[in-house]
């Protein structure tokens, strides 16, 4: 009986030891790979190390500090952490690499931040197309300077109050028309029918009244 218990204990201890060692080995490997990726002079060896790294913090460090844009690209393509991608999208100088980061972002806060603060309209467009949050889209529709980008945001809005706000306050007649055509709420349509100065837009609202009810 003692021999059996001893055997079970020994086997369990050995399994625990090997598992712990394997886990520590993985952690050590990632740190070692990060050191090679950061300090190795040969770019080919840095490339090999970067391709083997999975740790998001290590990849973020490389994406931020690596001088070679080709190697930064490899690191960025491996990053899935939304905060790390947001940092790259905000701080990376190469617009092509910022584009890669933005295309991988799904977090609504990070996308909203890019849509509001990114200087390149092409990159703002990518972020806006990925946004589904209605308040964020309404904010873009109200504050974005580029009418083409406001149009993209308006076309994605379904919230009736947001559409009503755009229909009432948007200066661009074509964009007001897009918003009005998307409105189904009877109170919002009535408000437009009574207050819109453009007779053609009032006509659209009046025609839609009574056709659909929320």
Explain this structure to me?
- With 214 residues, the chain is mainly alpha-helical.
- It is built from 14 helices and no strands.
- It has helices at residues 2-39, 43-52, 56-65, 69-78, 82-91, 95-104, 108-117, 121-130, 134-143, 147-156, 160-169, 173-182, 186-195, 199-208.
- Helix 5 packs antiparallel against helix 6, helix 8 (121-130) packs parallel to helix 10 and helix 13 (186-195) runs antiparallel to helix 14 (199-208).
- The protein starts with a helix and ends in a 6-residue tail after the last helix.
Task: Produce a short descriptive summary.
By secondary structure, the protein is mainly α.
Strand content: under 5%
Gross morphology: rod-shaped
How would you spell out the order of helices and strands? HHHHHHHHHHHHHH
Whole-angstrom Rg: 27 Å
Mean pLDDT figure: 88
Q: What characterizes the major β-sheet? A: none
Pairing-aware structural class of the strands and helices?
mainly alpha
Helix content: over 70%
Distance between the termini: 75 Å
Specify the number of helices.
14
Low-confidence stretches: 2-27
Annotation, overall tally of beta strands? 0
